[in-house]
């Protein structure tokens, strides 16, 4: 059994007991990255508690040879998409996908993830004009180099536009009666 599979088998019950889900697990170099989530989002207290309990369980079972650094975090607003279940949960959201160099067509696809199945994903790629027609593009999982969701901030304020009014009275208003 691969190290990452051993670690997953050990830490998933710990996370489940905390009401958390294992979003992703990576072992690269000297780092073990555990990404956790839960419905409604995750806070720092949950991350701290998960870190303590996962660390304790990994110390007890010692599934990894050598020294490593444990990193426990949330997936964040712009989530990395690596597995089919990640893509399925992200259907309907804006994504950015980069394909491998050997794939025909544009390497970067950005738009709305409209479908995800066992074979790959379909992205409604943004056209050249904002609000214009979209073009669906199917990408197989083995063609994806990396992908992530895109968080869209609200509209940017117009330069030189009106400034927000303060809730407090100005000094001249407070003294004049």
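Sequence proposed for the structure above (177 residues):
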């Amino acid at each position: 059994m691969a190290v990452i599979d051993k670690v997953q088998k050990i830490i998933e019950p710990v996370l489940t007991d905390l009401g958390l889900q294992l979003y992703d697990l990576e072992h690269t170099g000297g780092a073990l990255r555990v990404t956790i989530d839960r419905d409604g989002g995750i806070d720092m207290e949950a991350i701290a508690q998960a870190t303590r309990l996962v660390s304790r369980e990994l110390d007890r079972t010692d599934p990894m040879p050598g020294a490593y650094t444990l990193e426990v975090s949330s997936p964040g607003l712009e989530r990395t998409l690596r597995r089919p279940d990640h893509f399925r949960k992200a259907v309907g959201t804006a994504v950015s996908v980069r394909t491998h160099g050997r794939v025909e067509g544009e390497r970067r696809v950005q738009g709305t993830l409209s479908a995800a199945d066992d074979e790959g994903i379909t992205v409604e790629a943004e056209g050249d004009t904002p609000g214009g027609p979209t073009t669906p593009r199917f990408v197989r999982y083995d063609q994806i180099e990396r992908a992530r969701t895109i968080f869209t901030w609200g509209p940017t304020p117009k330069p030189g536009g009106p400034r927000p009014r303060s809730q407090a009275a100005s000094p001249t208003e407070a003294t004049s009666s």
